[in-house]
């Protein structure tokens, strides 16, 4: 089995991650192979340790041609793929919950048994407690709350311990040389089966890891599709899946981290209620009784706050290792992503970059990219159309509402004008009637006067004048 080491580990003695045997890392490193297709060397790529000169080594690499694979080659690839069958993958980050509970419960029993002999006698004041007596009092004063918090804490620490063991397994797998240079400087359709077979020959205890599983899935997909773009998309999706899996493995730990201080506060509330319920000031003149009552209350308050103290201490002790482990798992996942992006992908050669060669992979990638862009455009267009339709419907509703308001206000104004006109006409008719009645009364009075005058005779005497200056008689 070939392993990869950092340059600064040269000359040191380490243990093999597969069989746990001590190994002496050689102090001298051989020269490296040139990278395929003129690509720059990825950062962190280890140099091969047992290869001849680059020219001689390259002579053992099968020559890649841009000719399509023969039916016999495709049949051989299909037979190899069916013969492999893969392997059952274990959960890389979630420990067995029953095993974690069992380990946590055993630790809980051991801890409770250790503290049991250190319980102080009831007559001993708290000021004279030793360190172990004080710790024992924290656990045994509120047995229900304290024991529950302690069980949650030991259960959480068992989960963290089992996750650390899984993380060590994942880190050991990073030392495997999963893509040996002896099989080829480039990974193409002619030699990808050899790389996959090499993965199946790795030790069983290290083969089932996120690193090896991701490389195996990528190479098997490349063997079928022969398209580096599909492999890139698959690796990105697998990275997201592994990240979400790691994040979901901390759900129970986060629940315990939330529940432990909450239970401490619940114990405090219970202690406060007992302390307040024990107050007895029925006889205020009895100073001895008042002093005893105050001592009981203050003692109960101290017991109540001890539950909160225990909960906060346990939550603090749990928070630091949990966040440290979370960061370590994220770093391990980043190392796997970096290996796939910097070492695996540059060595994949689907023939699309060779001059005059087969551009089917590139065209497939381009067609898929255009199809995805068109799909997104149609989705955005449908969304925009629905919004425009919604705005049009809202505009129609507003127009109808405005028309109804105009009609209502016009009808109101018309009714007001009609009422005012009717009132004006009625007033005019009434005034005209009064005027006609007054005129009729005047005409009647005139007729009466004329009738009276018709019954009487008016005699007019003419006086004769005698001269110019004479006067009438």
Description:
By secondary structure, the chain is mainly α. The chain contains 12 helices and 2 strands; from the N terminus they run E-E-H-H-H-H-H-H-H-H-H-H-H-H. It folds into 2 domains: 86-352, no CATH class; 366-442. Residues 29-67 and 353-358 have low confidence and may be disordered. Helix 3 (97-115) crosses helix 5. It has a two-stranded antiparallel ribbon. The N and C termini lie far apart (180 Å). The chain has helices at 54-59, 71-84, 97-115, 131-140, 143-173, 192-200, 204-207, 210-225, 228-248, 251-277, 287-347, 360-455, and strands spanning 13-15, 22-24.
Please tell me the total number of domains. 2
SSE series? EEHHHHHHHHHHHH
Distance from N terminus to C terminus (CA atoms, Å) equals 180 Å
| Rounded Rg | 52 Å
Structure described in brief:
By secondary structure, the chain is an all-alpha fold. The chain has helices at residues 54-59, 71-84, 97-115, 131-140, 143-173, 192-200, 204-207, 210-225, 228-248, 251-277, 287-347, 360-455, and strands at residues 13-15, 22-24.
